[in-house]
Amino acid sequence: MQTFEYRKPSTVAEAISAAGELHARFVAGETTLVDLMKLNVETPQVVIDINSLPLNRIERTSDGGLRIGAMVRNSDLAHDTTVQWDYPVLAQALLAGASGQLRNMATTGGNLLQHTRCYYFRDTVRWLTVMDAGRMINLKTARNQIVGGVVMGIGMALFEETIYDSRNGKPINNNYADYLVPVNLDIPEIDVMFLDYPDKVMSEYGARGVGEIGLTGCASAPAMATYHATGVRIRALPIRLEKLMV
Ligand SMILES: Cc1cc2nc3c(=O)[nH]c(=O)nc-3n(C[C@H](O)[C@H](O)[C@H](O)COP(=O)(O)OP(=O)(O)OC[C@H]3O[C@@H](n4cnc5c(N)ncnc54)[C@H](O)[C@@H]3O)c2cc1C
What we know:
- This protein has 246 residues and is of the alpha/beta class.
- The chain has 9 helices and 7 strands.
- Bound molecules: flavin-adenine dinucleotide.
């Protein structure tokens, strides 16, 4: 687990102001955040403990609604008489989740804002690409180009394949329902680094075009990783599970 600064504000305003800092996270019942920090999925630099804030009230509103404080524990909410009488489905849903001990700790705010519990999203795989693309004139747009190239490379390695009809040579999967491309959930966090070394041969500024260069080598990296993990060399992309069954 990475080191972090722990703060315990005594007012809501103080907590909100602290949360404005980069890489700050609130911690309430601690039933999710601490696990994720141990797994290095969440790496906050500042952890703001909001347990002493007065946010644990359940109140009826003048328009007939219900206002639930962010620090109301799941058990307290499930056993609140107003909730049991007027919102029985909410009470039942709360009591169907987790275990008694967890419900005693878990808060409404934490429950709504918890990171998904799906294992896939707890994966800490990262993609790092290091580019020698001359002198950087605009780091942001150059980085965007490279990120796009990496996504294309992952698509090439794992998804994209045109399948032709052997009778007439026409592509069968000529639409986005059948032709697979990676979507957001397929792509890990991408880090881009540039050597930022001027290429004076290419231009007097030392800059070069940063176009398709981002794609270079991207498809071979998953192929190499697949070989290291399984011992199977895949030489025809995309890499699919059935190709590993040799
Ligand atoms: C074994 C196990 C089984 C579980 N089963 C279920 C289940 O069946 N159904 C289900 O729904 N959940 C389940 N959970 C998840 C559980 O409900 C959550 O861990 C809990 O609701 C999170 O609340 P917390 O107060 O402990 O949040 P914390 O862990 O303290 O925080 C969770 C996240 O919310 C943010 N956060 C917390 N409070 C606030 C706030 N006031 N404002 C802004 N951000 C805030 C934190 O920064 C953090 O990112 C399970 C958890 C475990 C460990």
